[in-house]
Every structure is written in structure tokens, then in C-alpha cells.
Amino acid sequence: MLNLKINYSYKKLDANLWDNSSSATYFTSSNWHDVVLSFYHGTFLTRRLHKPVYFQASFDDGSWILGFFFVSKTIKGKTITFGHLLGPSDYYDLLYSPSITNEQFQVLFNQIQLDFKSRTMQFVHLKASSKCYQAIAQLPLVISTPLSCVAIPLPETYEAYYSSLSKSVRQNIRTAYNRLEKSNLHVQLEIFEKRDYAQINWEQLKQLYSSRNDFRKEKKYWKSQLYFWLDYGFQHEKDMFDFETIRKTDFTLAVLKINQEIAAYFFGFKIEKNIEINRVVINDDFKFFSPGLLLFNEYIKKEIPQIEGIDLTVGDEKYKFDLGGKPHIIYNLKVSI
């Protein structure tokens, strides 16, 4: 049962093999990995210091694991990172058969460490429900760092959802619509998917995101700033909307317009009857009308028959709980030998 066979490759695994494996998150899909690789190939230092390795592992009982990791060389030796490394990738996991066991995971990780002569392994943004996380958490000398995430579980009807919100949030929603009415402004929700790619003004969305987040960016230490400028060749940091690979993803873009101007939008990915959102943007020109609250209210009102949950992913900002969100935890882990 524990006889292990591993095939390594420095080329991406076949997309059919990748996507025929079930997963609990869209961020493990082949199409999203192509977006990550677009970020990666656009760097100078990162792609020289961190090399992606793909693998397929199988055991005698038919159990299997496949995925990728990055190998990095440092002064202290090699580090193996199981994670996306670049891009707004909120979750990570390996793909594996339902029959996989903790012991098989541990045998795999031990063999990878031996094969690449690494003393440190890192795992980034693993869900607590992941079998991969559960296996690593049992290893000795594990340093575990929890991160908060929030997801909104949805009932069967909009009326039930609206009733579940706090009295103050329901009042805020009514106030937002009243302000629009008094200002003689019209609100409209537009939903775009993969087939609508050519209709979307990606540059406008990117600029709105950039202007919204400029003031939020933390000041970098000089070493980090120097690495950043060298990595991007003294150009601006790339955005996921810069890459053609984003058009291949099964995205959902919801745009709230007030009198035909974008007041707010979110971008994410549907997986079964849930949607994982990795970008929410508010236009401050419409802040008086609570556009973020209206965006999700209008989306839920329209889509609730088709979706069971909205995962707002990493971060525990107040608005996520106002919308009815419930917390869940993901983990960063470090294993040293």
C-alpha cells in the first residue's frame, strides 16, 4: 500500500488529467494555474530563483496524488513551496484520489524532500478540510499559521436570506435604495461570464481596482522594494486582467452600475453551486450609496436559485459579516527537518 512511484516534470501536466480530478476550489484548476504562470513568466528574479516542478504520484493500492510545487535556493539550502507563489490565489491544494490516506501523503512529502535535498517545506493557504492539510498537521516540527476567511451560506430563497441579516444591515440596504430614488438614480446589475469576454472593458476594471487600492498598499522595506523593481524590470506590477489567460477561466464578473457608471464589481469563479471571489472593488465616487452592499444584494436576489454559497475568501473585513458571512480558517504551514 505504501510502495510509491513518482514522476517529476518541469512542464505543466496535461490539462485533461488535471481537470478530470475533482477539487474543492477553482484555484487548483489548470486554467487558473495558467494565470499564475502568466505572472511567473512576466518576472525576472522570481522565475530564476523559484522553479516549478510538477509531479504524479501513485501507490500500489491505486491511490494517487498530483500537483506542483516550487523549488527555491537560499543561503540556508533548498525550500520547497506548495503554493501558487504569485497572483491573487486564495486557496491551494493538491489533487488526489478519495482513498488517499494521511500516511500516504506523509510518505510522498518525505520522498520529495529526499529527492530535492530540501530541509524546509512550506504549504500556503490550505483549507482545514483538505486531506493534505490534515496529513501535514500530524507531522512533527510543524509551524502552523491560521488565516481567517469568510463565506456566505445561502438559503433557498432571497426572502429567507434577507430576513437572516441583522436589523441594522437591512436598514442600511433600504437606506441605500432610498438615497438612489431621492437622487433620481437608476441601479443596474450586469453579470458577465467566459462567453462575454470581448464585451468587457478590462482596462477600466483594472484602473478602478488600482486607484481604489493605491492608498492601501503597505510601504515596503527598501530590500523588498528593490526586489520588486528588479523582478518587474522597473515596470508597474502586473494585474491578472493584463493576461489573455484570464479569458480561459470560468469566471463570473458582476458589475453594479448607477446611471450607467460602474459603482462596484466583483470577480470570481463558480465551482459547482458556489462562487469563490478574489476581487471586490468599490468606486468611491458612489460611496454615499453603499455600492458594495447593493452589489451583493442585487446579485444574491438574482442568482440565489442557482448558487448555495458565496466564498469571500481571505480576510475578515466587517462587510463580509454584514452580508451574512461565516468564518472559516485556512493555514500556512512550515515543516523543517
Proportion in β-strands: 25-35%
Distance between the termini: 25 Å
Structural class: alpha+beta
Q: Per CATH, what is the topology of the largest domain? A: Aminopeptidase
CATH class of the largest domain: Alpha Beta
Helical fraction: 25-40%
The largest pleated sheet is described as:
13 strands, mixed
Q: State the total count of DSSP E strands.
A: 13
Number of helices: 11
Residue-averaged pLDDT: 91
Q: Gyration radius, to the nearest Å?
A: 22 Å
The domain count comes to 2
Q: What CATH architecture of the largest domain would you give?
A: 3-Layer(aba) Sandwich
SSE arrangement, N to C? EHHHEEEEHEHEHHEHHEEEHEHE
Q: Spans with pLDDT under 50 lasting ≥5 residues?
A: 218-223
Provide the CATH superfamily of the largest domain.
Gcn5-related N-acetyltransferase (GNAT)
Shape label: globular
